[in-house]
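Here is the promised in-class demo. Please do not try to memorize the tokens; focus on the logic of going from shape to residues.
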């Protein structure tokens, strides 16, 4: 996508605006498939949480993707987008047995990540095929909030608890068809994946009826020009070879599953916001935009660095800016960032705005959530309208007149 297209979309649909480039999503999907082309049975389950607009789900469905979901609502979105239940994988954490039962009844593959639910579920439904989420205790991931494999993590069943796990499976005679792990996001070093894979292979040997191994996700994507990223091609080469060898050892051709979010949609996303005010203080120059952490929380939440460009005046002299939002608290997108000279009314473009951006947006400060546009075949398709005052009021119930007037 080019800056001129983005500017035109900001003009047409207003700001702030999320734009997603369909071609980039498709090329990332193809890149991952190609990297693992030596594995006969490969399945890519897109992690819905990253960006859950149903048009994006439909786009990925067309490519042959399955879905990775973490809540019953994400399952419902997937079904609504036209996915067969068998193409949906459900990996909840800390949800009730009732929710898991409801999802099971929909025909979706469930993944259980604690011994308590495993025992209850296995006792009640011994014949339902179940996947188990293992925590391999591999410390990986960009920062503590997105690293989920460590010893204090709430995710998965500790690999050290395997003897207890196996006992539950034997006692209930439940049907374990898959083993899963996901150690975190933004993992750069492919050795981490390969090391964790060995732990998964070892764990897998305890179960005789496996159909698949799910290696989760966590691939690091580049955030700016020349940034480092997970070497997918190298990982594909090494892990495929090891996976195929494991299948021979196991005596059955298993399916290899990945569930990428960021890898598929992060770089495809652009967040466009207009500069309301340029404010010079004694220490800095603020560029205040018509948005805030209510629309894009990652910089405040994770300290993530989204590259920012002034697409209205890309060739101007570069100056240092602190880019801030309009929320009533510290609301900083970037500090001391070199950006070409900003004038009020300019459109700033935030890169890597596809994953965990709109999906984490809120109505804080009673602001409307932005519109979303899919850039496909050279045109911008509106895939979500900007919210209105009616959306803010929806579900709210005013006090009855008798009470309100007392
Ligand atoms: C279980 C699980 N699978 C997949 C993902 C997707 O990870 P990523 O966006 O890094 O690809 C996540 C992210 O939190 C996850 O928790």
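The designed amino acids, position by position:
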């Amino acid at each position: 996508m080019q800056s001129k297209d983005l500017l035109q979309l900001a003009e047409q649909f207003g700001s702030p605006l999320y734009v997603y480039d369909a071609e980039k999503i498709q090329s990332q999907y193809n890149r991952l498939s190609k990297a693992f082309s030596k594995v006969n049975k490969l399945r890519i389950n897109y992690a819905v949480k990253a960006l859950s607009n149903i048009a994006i789900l439909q786009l990925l469905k067309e490519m042959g993707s399955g879905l990775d979901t973490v809540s019953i609502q994400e399952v419902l979105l997937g079904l609504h987008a036209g996915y067969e239940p068998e193409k949906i994988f459900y990996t909840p954490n800390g949800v009730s047995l009732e929710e898991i039962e409801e999802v099971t009844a929909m025909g979706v593959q469930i993944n259980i990540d604690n011994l308590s639910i495993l025992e209850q579920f296995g006792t009640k439904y011994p014949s339902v095929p179940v996947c188990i989420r293992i925590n391999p205790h591999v410390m990986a991931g960009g920062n503590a909030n997105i690293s989920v494999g460590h010893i204090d993590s709430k995710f998965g069943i500790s690999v050290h608890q395997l003897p207890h796990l196996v006992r539950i499976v034997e006692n209930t005679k439940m049907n374990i068809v898959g083993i899963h792990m996901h150690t975190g996001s933004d993992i750069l070093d492919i050795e981490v994946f390969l090391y964790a894979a060995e732990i998964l292979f070892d764990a897998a040997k305890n179960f005789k009826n496996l159909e698949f191994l799910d290696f989760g996700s966590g691939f690091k994507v580049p955030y700016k020009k020349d940034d480092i990223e997970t070497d997918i091609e190298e990982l594909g080469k090494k892990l495929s070879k090891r996976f195929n060898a494991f299948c021979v050892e196991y005596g059955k051709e298993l399916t290899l599953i990945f569930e990428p979010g960021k890898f598929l949609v992060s770089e495809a996303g652009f967040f466009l916001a207009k500069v309301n005010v340029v404010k010079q203080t004694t220490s800095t120059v603020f560029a205040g935009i018509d948005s805030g952490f209510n629309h894009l929380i990652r910089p405040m939440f994770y300290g993530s660095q989204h590259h920012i460009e002034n697409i209205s005046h890309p060739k101007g002299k570069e100056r240092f800016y602190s880019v801030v939002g309009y929320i009533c608290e510290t609301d900083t997108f970037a500090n001391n960032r070199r950006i070409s000279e900003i004038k009020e009314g300019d459109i700033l473009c935030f890169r890597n705005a596809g994953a965990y951006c709109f999906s984490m947006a809120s109505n804080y400060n009673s602001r409307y959530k932005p519109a979303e546009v899919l850039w496909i075949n050279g045109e911008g398709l509106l895939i979500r309208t900007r919210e209105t005052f009616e959306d803010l009021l929806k579900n709210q119930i005013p006090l009855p007149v008798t009470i309100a007037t007392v």
